[in-house]
């Protein structure tokens, strides 16, 4: 069978389905984007798919203490829609909520159909309760660092940390030059900075749910491992400073000069180390944090999700749920293409049950919807059926 003939047959089959259901499709699209959504039409087509995978949302919403939810996975699996819909659900259930995108390729603005750029928290329009959203931008983070440094050079900053003896090799390198250089991990550093703000600033104390729409897998793992990296680096710097101070003191005493009094590590390093420990503990605290893996029903996506869960286990990050997004709903049509895709997706769901990393997670099945999920009304519609 030629490719053109196969495409022609698929086109005729899907066109036939569209002709029979176009009124229903247009109705659903109008209900979503018109702001008055009825779940009846959706349930008639898709509830059979959803019935097998409830998210146990009552567990997620019942606790009054602050909870952090990080949603992550392979690129293109629908992390942003899932994170945004979860944030809307939390807010709708009375939790003051913040949703944050740490993905450099932001789509949170598109998901809410509202400009959330600029690196500052903005109120989400169309939600009756408190919901703020933020797209973290490295450029804004760099400007914040510059303003906080007061134009210091690297040498001046090292002097203030008590490490001036090493600054000579760096000359008068300007902090701005470092920030403008390609800096791997700046996105993760910006995200960590925001986590610290949410944890420490009194103005954010009333928010009981903080949802992170994370970057694709590699970025997310760097984000979660960053506190450990900083903690280790700070410890090495502290030990090195003690050794250098002791050596300098012994050297001067050999020449009869007054012995240098050994100083304790600077308060700045101590404070930074303490703050990194706070972030690390939050990421690993089963009572405050949960990482939700989002995937789609393909073998490649499931394999990456399995590797992601293995990495999260090594980082001791709590994971309880797995969302399988974009599942084709059951249909009575004779579309062979749809039937083959559903059969393949069913096979992939079986792989999850046999995967040692994923089989123990709560499986949430999210259908491929017949309208674009964009705007608060659409996100509420999605959330009411996925987060239940």
UniProtKB/TrEMBL annotation:
Protein name (Swiss-Prot/TrEMBL): ATPase ASNA1 homolog 2-like
Domain ArsA/GET3 Anion-transporting ATPase-like stretches: 67-383
InterPro entries attached to this UniProt entry: ArsA/GET3_ATPase-like, ATPase_ArsA/GET3, P-loop_NTPase
Pfam family, one: ArsA_ATPase
Listed PANTHER family: ARSENICAL PUMP-DRIVING ATPASE ARSENITE-TRANSLOCATING ATPASE, ATPASE GET3C
Top-level taxon in the UniProt lineage: Eukaryota
């Amino acid at each position: 069978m030629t490719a053109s003939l196969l495409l022609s047959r698929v086109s005729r089959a899907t066109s036939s389905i569209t002709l029979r259901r176009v009124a229903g499709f247009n109705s659903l699209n109008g209900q979503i984007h018109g702001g008055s959504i009825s779940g009846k039409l959706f349930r008639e087509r898709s509830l059979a798919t959803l019935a097998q995978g409830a998210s146990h949302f009552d567990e997620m919403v019942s606790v009054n203490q602050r909870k952090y939810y990080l949603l992550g996975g392979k690129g293109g699996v629908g992390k942003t829609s899932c994170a945004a819909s979860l944030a809307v659900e939390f807010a709708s259930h009375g939790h003051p909520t913040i949703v944050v995108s740490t993905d450099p390729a932001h789509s949170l603005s598109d998901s809410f159909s509202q400009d959330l750029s600029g690196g500052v928290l903005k109120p989400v329009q169309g939600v009756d309760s408190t919901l703020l959203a933020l797209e973290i931008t490295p450029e804004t983070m760099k400007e914040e660092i510059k303003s906080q440094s007061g134009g210091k050079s690297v040498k001046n900053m090292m002097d203030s940390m008590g490490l001036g003896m090493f600054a000579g090799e760096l000359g008068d390198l300007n902090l701005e030059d470092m920030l403008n250089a390609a800096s791997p991990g700046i996105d993760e550093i910006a995200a960590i900075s925001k986590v610290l703000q949410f944890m420490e600033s009194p103005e954010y104390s009333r928010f009981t749910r903080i949802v992170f729409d994370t970057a694709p897998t590699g970025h997310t793992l760097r984000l979660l491992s960053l506190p450990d990296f900083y903690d280790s680096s700070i410890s090495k710097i502290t030990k090195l400073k003690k050794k250098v101070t002791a050596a300098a003191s012994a050297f001067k005493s050999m020449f009869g000069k007054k012995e240098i009094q050994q100083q304790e590590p600077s308060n700045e390093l101590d404070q930074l180390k303490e703050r990194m420990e706070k972030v690390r503990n939050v990421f690993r605290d089963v009572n405050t944090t949960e990482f939700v893996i989002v995937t789609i029903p393909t073998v490649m996506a499931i394999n990456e999700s399995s590797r992601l869960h293995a990495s999260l286990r090594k980082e001791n990050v709590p994971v309880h749920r797995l969302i399988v997004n974009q599942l084709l709903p059951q249909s009575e049509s004779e579309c062979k293409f749809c039937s083959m895709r559903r059969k393949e997706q069913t096979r992939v769901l079986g792989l999850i049950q046999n995967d040692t990393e994923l089989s123990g997670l709560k499986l949430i099945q999210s259908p491929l919807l017949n309208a674009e999920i964009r705007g608060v009304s659409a996100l509420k519609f999605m959330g009411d059926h996925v987060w239940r």
